[in-house]
Amino acid sequence: MEYYYDLATNNNSNLLNSFRAIYEDGFPDINEREDYDVILKRVTLQKQSKEPYTVIVLDTLETNNQEKEVTGGLIIDWYERSQTIHLIYLIVSENHRKKGIAKKLINEGISKVIEWIKDEKGIEIKNVVFESNNPYETKTDNFAPSERLLAFSGLGAKWINISYVQPPLDLKKKLVNNLLLLSFTQFNKKKNKIPAVEIKAFLLDLYEGLGITDLEDNIHLEKMYLELDKMEDENGDIELEDLMEDSKYQFGSGKASITYHFIEDQSFTKKNKEKIKTCEHFHSLEKDLLNYQNQSFAPLNSRFVRSVDNITLLLPKAYQYSSEGKIHIRLVLKNEIDVITSLSFTYFNNSDLKIWHLTISPKNDYYFTELDIIKLATQFGSIQECSDVKENICLKYKNRRTKLMTIKELMMELSNSKSSISLNSGIIQLLTNEIEEHVINNFSKQIQDTKRHEIEDKGVMSLAKAVCGIVQGIFDFDRMDEEEIYDTIKPFMSSDLSFLSLSRGTLLKFSKEDEIMEVVKDSIIISPYLLIPSSVLVHNENILATANNLLNQSLENKSSLTLKNLSSNQEKIHRLINYEYVDNIFQYHTENEIINNGNLERGLTFLKSNIQDRLKELEEKISTKRNKIKMFSDAMIVAILFIIAALEFGKEFLSLPIDHNLMFIGLPTLMIIIFSFFSIKKFV
Predict the structure, then answer these.
(1) Could you read off the pLDDT of 358-389 as tens digits, one per residue?
(2) Reduced to 3 states, what is the DSSP secondary structure of residue 557?
(3) Residues of 579-613 as b/e, b for ≥16 C-beta within 10 angstroms?
(4) Would the N or C end of the chain have less CB density within 10 A of its end CB?
(5) pLDDT tens for each residue of 219-268
(6) DSSP calls for 234-271
(7) Alpha-carbon distance 384 to 472, whole Å?
(8) Whole-prediction pTM value?
């Protein structure tokens, strides 16, 4: 490698000119690219007093003509006061990428420069920092920002998670706020930690070196200082953040499944209903679930439709989420997973509603991590961390040239459905037999104990946090303490072998084994003993939502609904909650507990009670409207009788000719009839 500490040490202008072309091609954004001649001036020590020293490191390759070809290079600024190396540009020629040149430049190049600064200048470098494009804030780049971050992470980079803003590189350029401030921790004095005062010292050097004069009133500098103050630990250090997602658990084929529910209003004709025949995959299990009262005429019928095993799940290569007021970015090394999908449905006879179920599970030789499961669970509507994962999950057929599909689009294609609605609920079923047995045993004891004991086993603590992440659908579960863990993991049924938990729209079963899951792994995939109760919950939630909407419309103060409309809505609501709503159909304790806890967790018990109470208001409104109409009708009859009497009086005492009598009688009577008709119609 060639080192340019100053042009007196090495003055090969040909190599520097060759690198100029690579440098300018590699950084197309002029606001992020410093003028190359200005950089060279600093290398020749023609710098301003507050500007940094600059070193250029070039990697070269000897050609057949025994000449040197530049393959890539580093441009390094270093500050004497803060004792910081600022790696400002790293670029490898497009023809020589993926050959380990970047790794060589960083590991060998930076080490050599640190050594030279110590030997020649007597200064010991404390930290090495650099910037890289934020994939969420960068629109154009010659290299995918997430791929670049992934490469840097592999070389030891970690994130100084502050709202970093780079000042304008010169008077003609703008400030840059689409960068992340990173550090190669292997060169730092404290490795994964940097004292906050040292980061502040570097930022001050950087801003001064770029000619910023209003340092005390600079809003960007002040904001970064405040963030560092909040982040520092009791020793004044800042813990650097790993950009690579760090999973600890793997749930392989037949050990993990996630199920999504979609609803479709079928309004079946008799002919269509006859198509729902007995399903060999569901029938015996469904009959086993239902209680005695529902054996003859089942309120629901479930049917397996098809499974597809040539699909690849594509998770985002990078994702971000918000936690405790900060944005976090994570990179994914493994983002493509071959999966098997299963489509089934449960049809409810009284409501003509069909609940579709799409279940996804990893194929042989593939697995879901706890973080993969959380990503998939974001489809249940989790918005706690404002993650962008939900919008960036898609699937594709293997060996088939088709467009990428969302989970809903795949369901609609497999089912030929055109009107289904996604529901913010579903099921996660996990088998834990690949986790260390003593960890599972201790974890089971811990959550079954009614008293809250300190979690001393690190393995149990790690697993408990991961379960919390899955239950809540959050990525930042490592921050959770014992109190939060106990508040989150509240199984309504648990034993040494398994536990069941409900949180928001998610039903989770965590168990060592599941015989039924093994039986249906090639068809339904997920246990019907979870699928059917969950279907009942989402069905009833839809029924109550429909009833509540009708009730709200009917009770609005400005409602223009007629008595006929109100009475019709009342009948519909009564039918929904008394006939279509499915209740007390299971014979086993477990399934009844799923329903009872689901009703409480999702607020269905309260909603149903509230609807029943407000139905009394509707009844009063209808009664009031009827009374008004009756009073009006009575008044009209009295008025008409009075008019008839008046007409008779006129006939006898006014002695009008017959033609005038007819006019006198006919015209007012006609007007009264018309007025009465429209008045009564308004109320009815």
Answers:
(1) 999 999 999 999 999 999 999 887 788 999 99
(2) coil
(3) ebbbeebbeeebbebbbebbbebbebeebbeebee
(4) C
(5) 999 999 999 999 999 999 999 999 999 999 999 988 999 999 999 887 65
(6) TTSEEEPBP-B-----EEETTTEEEEEEEEEE----HH
(7) 9
(8) 0.83
